[in-house]
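Memo to structure team: turn this sequence into structure tokens by end of day. - J.P.
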Amino acid sequence: MSDESNESQPSGETRAVRRLRARLAESRQLHELTDDPLLQAVHLERFRTSVTRSMWFFLALGLGFTTTGVHEFLAGHLTPADPMWWGAWLVEPGLAGILVTLLRWEAEMLSRGLAVDAKPVLWLKRLLLGATLITNVWASLRPASGEVNSGMVFLHVVIPLVVFFIAEVMPVIQHRCNNARDQALAVAQPAASPALRPTPSTSTAERPPAAPRTPVKLPAHLQQQLAEKAAQVRKEGRDVTSADVQAAVNVPDAYAVRLADQLNAA
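Reply from structure team:
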């Protein structure tokens, strides 16, 4: 009789079958854990952090290149003996510092669910990046020494544009990742506190009271948009829905449901 037969159980299961059953049980447990909404929310937050760091790194590289173009524009005709030759190296880092500070502020506001759509913010970014683009292109088209190099002209046009679009895309990345994380947390919220669920042996009187939900707060201009939408919906003789809320303001699904409840309760 073979070894496989000797290792069979009374039910007829062999060692190979038992091994596969163990692997199947392990796979089910891993799938259950990896599919948990809280784990997905943590993964999304780490992914957002990783992508943001990469974008910051490449933004810094681009700004390092554009610094040379700004210096060439301002002091290409000077020599290191002139103080302005040294001072010109500080112009682009100064402008870039303002841009980086602005982007950090945008990222923090978006991570807290607050929209950043004020026109002064947008115009300041465009002014900073537009100045970098113009000075780099001008310096490559009118070099202080030597002939015009088509390759350098191309780089001095493309790299400032890439820097500009990185600055525009970073808030979008933050916003989309935060929406995905909030949706995962909204799914996880009902299952986050199983101890509060009544068991068959628990009476109604013994159930702990539900925790009050904190009202969702929005900036004044978004509140105005939402109020106008709510007034329009009420004129139609119906309650405000989460779809109505998202048509007025860009918020995650979980926030839209809570805002609709607040408006209907009011």
